[in-house]
Amino acid sequence: MVIPEEGALRQGALDLGIALDAGAIERLGRFIELLTAWNRRIRLTGDRDPRILVRKHVVDSLAVVPELPSSGLVIDVGSGGGFPGIVLGCARPDLALRLIEPRRRPTSFLSEAIRAIPLPEAKALEMRAEDATADPSLARHARVIVSRALRLDVLLAVGIPLLATGGVIVAMQTPSSTARDVRDPAGEVGVELLRSREYRLPDGEVRRLLIFAKS
């Protein structure tokens, strides 16, 4: 399988401290191929060029891999076209992944990607994040909660009821967030910022991860 921008993908992963094995590369290739095909019919992502998807979205999603637990439940809230959830599954197919997405068409895509790649430990759930907090299979079970789609205040509010003891919330942000932008919503829901990580995408764009835990 020919993967667009495979060199940029491998180097971008290495810059993040991640060595992708042949299996991960193959799974990511299947994902990009499927996403490109679906993007021709419905608009799952703003960027549709496979090269941009790899350099801008796949590499960005891989930045979360070092924050993943050795085992346990990982929840991606607002998974959309599969970023970061499907990418994380491609890198760590052993993890129990739940991809929460309220819209039917993206959820159908996520389910098809899970089947086709395949990611046997992953499952796409068509539901609102607020409803997930009342699901006994999800509430207080997540070792890691991550989102690339939600505003920070929304992610923290819905993430707290989903967290297992010792779990963390990983917010994927741009560096434009100020200290107050982070402090105020965190204080309102009773979480604290454990650490932040900045990194660069292959085109030089700076991104940031914010990692929170219950206070």
**Strand percentage, roughly?**
15-25%
CATH class: Alpha Beta
What's the CATH architecture name?
3-Layer(aba) Sandwich
Note the overall shape: globular
Poorly predicted spans: none
Please count the beta strands (DSSP E, at least 2 residues each): 7
Q: What count of structural domains?
A: 1
**Global mean pLDDT:** 93
Number of helices: 8
Main sheet characteristics: 7 strands, mixed
**In angstroms, what separates the terminal alpha carbons?**
46 Å
Question: Which structural class fits the helix and strand makeup?
Answer: alpha/beta
Task: List the SSEs and their pairings.
Layout: H1 6-15, H2 22-39, H3 50-62, E1 73-77, H4 85-91, E2 96-101, H5 104-116, E3 122-126, H6 129-132, E4 142-147, H7 152-159, E5 163-173, H8 179-189, E6 191-200, E7 206-214
Parallel strand pairs: 1-2, 1-4, 2-3, 4-5
Antiparallel strand pairs: 5-7, 6-7
Helix pairs in contact: 1-3, 2-3, 2-4, 7-8
Please provide a written account of the structure.
There is one protein chain. With 215 residues, the chain is an alpha/beta fold. It has one domain: Rossmann fold (3-Layer(aba) Sandwich), CATH 3.40.50.150. It contains 8 helices and 7 strands; from the N terminus they run αααβαβαβαβαβαββ. It has helices spanning 6-15, 22-39, 50-62, 85-91, 104-116, 129-132, 152-159, 179-189; strands at residues 73-77, 96-101, 122-126, 142-147, 163-173, 191-200, 206-214. It has a 7-stranded mixed beta sheet, sandwiched between helices. The longest helix has 18 residues, at 22-39. The protein is globular. The termini are far apart.
